[in-house]
Amino acid sequence: LNFTPKNNIYATFAASILKAKVINNIAGLGVVFIEKSIFSKLVSFLYKTSQKKADYIFFQNEEDKKLFVDLGIVTPENSDRLPGSGVDLSRFEYSEIGTSQNVRFLLVARLIAEKGIRLYAEAAKELNSRYPNLEFCLLGPLDTCSTSAITKKELETWQSENVINYLGFTDHVEDELKKSDCVVLPSYYREGVPKSLLEAAAIGRPIITTDNVGCREVVDDGLNGFLCEPRSLISLVNSLEKFILLSPTEKVNMSIMSREKVQKEFDERIVIEKYLKVIDDLSKSS
After folding, report:
1. What's the whole-model pTM score?
2. Which of 114, 103, 140, 77 is nearest to 212 (CA)?
3. Angle 240-267-220 (CA atoms, 0-180°, nearest 5)?
4. Which of the two residues, 79 and 27, has the higher pLDDT score?
5. How confident is the model at residue 170 (pLDDT cuts 50, 70, 90)?
6. Are 69 and 234 in contact (CB under 8 A)?
7. 30: part of which helix (H) or strand (E)?
8. CA distances in angstroms from 16 to 19, 22, 51, 55, 236, listed in the order given
9. Which pLDDT tens digit goes with each residue over 258-271?
10. Which of 28, 86, 111, 263 can pair with 271 through a Cys bridge, CB separation 3.0 to 4.6 Å?
11. Strand, helix or coil for residue 284
12. For residues 176 and 230, what is the distance between their CA atoms, to the nearest angstrom?
């Protein structure tokens, strides 16, 4: 059972030599099918050649599944969509949203440009000049390897200008999610289904994210959050402003809708049951 690109690729090649059954989980394609660099082309080639050897492949959104079917890498019969990685509803329990005039936004992500971090900072600058009592928080590890990484200097500048409150990194993300009023992810990365959004919705937080592969899966626009255009500062600012201007009752209703959506569509038990069925089917056919 493989998960993450290196495992999906290398373990599948190895398993084909050993004649072992393989189930892969493609949790988003990142920048592999977006960038045109030599590295991206190489990874794309390895994906295409390795995944044809897999016995079964799970995808986390319909767009990725359709892409692989259209490319002839998989068939509808040996692939399926999972609701992301699912979410543990017992750990991420519903927590009532605050109803004060203060609004605390939170972005949880690896700190790279494709996650929309710089757009978030620009939106924070603009909205802080219009509205009092806003706080834009950022939680996640610095990435020292990516060429598009947010730099430590950028973070320090945003903090010194009171644009962003950088919270660092934590293994107990639920504590910070509960303190937030709305979780934001302006990603233009090719996501699977972002775990941070599933966990936020499980706790009952409205979501603002992009109408982008993977991200849109978590939001019913206008019901439990708002969708904005990828890479568009104006669209992001408009969506954030829509939330700011909601009444306390409307925010509470969005909060409840987020929890209900996750319970119905993204419970991790759905993921586990799908895995067990495929394992059982492959075991019988071996």
Report:
1. 0.85
2. 114
3. 30
4. 79
5. very high
6. no
7. strand 28-30
8. 5, 8, 11, 10, 46
9. 999 999 999 999 99
10. 86
11. helix
12. 25
CB within 8 Å of 164: residues ≥ 6 apart: 120, 121, 124, 136, 137, 138, 155, 158
The model's pLDDT over 235-257, given as tens digits with 9 standing for 90+, comes to 999 999 999 999 999 999 999 99
CA 163, 169, 173, 179 torsion-angle sign:
negative
Mean pLDDT, all residues of the chain: 92
- Token pair of 187 as six digits: 């990603």
Confidence bin at 137 (pLDDT 50/70/90) = very high
Listed in sequence order, the DSSP H helices in the chain are 5-6, 12-18, 38-51, 62-70, 117-128, 152-160, 173-179, 195-203, 233-244, 248-265, 268-285
Q: State which H helix or E strand residue 81 sits in.
A: strand 79-81
Residue bearing tokens 């038990």: 269
- pLDDT for 85 equals 85
Distance separating alpha carbons of residues 121 and 123, to the nearest angstrom: 5
Q: Write the DSSP symbol of residue 92.
A: S
Query: How far out from the chain centre does Cα 133 lie?
Result: 27
Residue at 26: amino acid letter:
I
Q: Alpha-carbon distance 155 to 230, whole Å?
A: 22
